[in-house]
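Final report, closing paragraph on structural work. Over the funding period we assembled a curated collection of sequence-structure pairs, and we close with a single example.
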Amino acid sequence: MNNQISSNSMNILVTGANGQLGNEMRIVSKNSADHYIFTDVNQVEGQETTYLDITDMDAIRKMVNDNDVKAIINCAAWTNVDACETDEKLAALAEKLNADAPENLAKAMKEANGILIQISTDYVFGKEPYNVPCNPDQKGTPTGVYGMTKLHGEQKIIATGCKYVIIRTAWLYSEFGKNFCKTMMNLTATKPQLKVVFDQCGTPTYALDLANAIQTILEKMKKEADNAKYVGVYHFSNEGVCSWYDFTQMIARISGHTDCDIQPCYSSEYPSPVTRPAYSVLDKRSIKETFGVKVPYWVDSLEKCIANLETK
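Its predicted structure, as stored:
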């Protein structure tokens, strides 16, 4: 085992650093002894960001070698679910970013004897109807291009034989970028009435909670010389279950936008190019038992996020 991983600090590369999770990783990194390098293809004013194209294997190798990188947290992905369903070029781009690029990162970590933390999605499930939480070992049955490309990414990482922790998450929201929480805060403040689907159930995930979980995982793997035993697929979302309708009701209540009349409706009333999972609650037992990750209740985390947004 390379000493860099078992010592007190290591160099960690974060891709997609200007997205929701990447921005939360910036926050949690401030309390870390590790040295973080934040990369993205997009520059954001006021954010220190190193340019890195993760579809370029040579560029990744150079970045890893020049900076003695011993862990990569891949927060980069193509996430426009509907667009890649109807446009072949965008579907090809999704495959490149969600499957080929993670394979590049996995190869680089195998060469460097490092760790890859890959963020995946509940969209790898959905074809079969079920009403029990999805287990990490459950066979992926995606219903659309996005879910399929993310599943391909998982498979390609595993095939490299690198040390990896794949974390499937769901319904991600934060103070950053575009997300359901921010959209609904705006709509419930400005619209007299809203219709929101109630026949799709899952669990919201506050990106800051996921960032903290990732840091807990890396700390645990760093401390043990034999960290290959932690390799695997895990699930992380907040605790509890709700529909998009319930999520919206709670956003409105916490934000004080209770004048908006929020009505439940069926998914069929809002036709979409892709069939979203009807029930994608994630079974989180293994991440809790293996790494001692604490998982907050979704309403508690939502209150924190909205308080942060209102402070801003």
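DSSP finds eleven helices and 13 strands in the chain. Residues 1-6 have pLDDT under 50 and may be disordered. We thank the funder for supporting this effort.
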